[in-house]
Amino acid sequence: MIQVTESAAKKIQTLRLEDNAPVEAMLRVRVKRGGCSGFSYKMEFDTQTSQHDQVFESSGAKVIVDDQSLLYLIGMTLDYEGGLNGKGFIFQNPNATKSCGCGSSFGV
Prior knowledge:
By secondary structure, the protein is an alpha+beta fold. It has 2 helices and 9 strands; from the N terminus they run βαββββαββββ. It has helices spanning 6-18, 67-73, and strands at residues 3-4, 26-33, 39-46, 53-58, 61-66, 77-81, 88-92, 98-99, 105-107.
């Protein structure tokens, strides 16, 4: 299961509108090799799903995760902190054993 906080869901909707993505666009979250801790998160809007995707809905936002990425993301909560000292999107990933200072890279 992937959770999205209300704050992150609002930001996802704002970004979808700014990107002129279709109303049916969902946020695709992937894990790819790279980054200073071994893996990094990648996010983009997508309107297509495949048989290898799981769709999670939380706080009004739909998130697509492929089966391989789900192994690293199961139980994750996606949050968002804005403002002057905000960090942007925050991945609260219980599977990560280490992460970098920027929060976009992690290790397992």
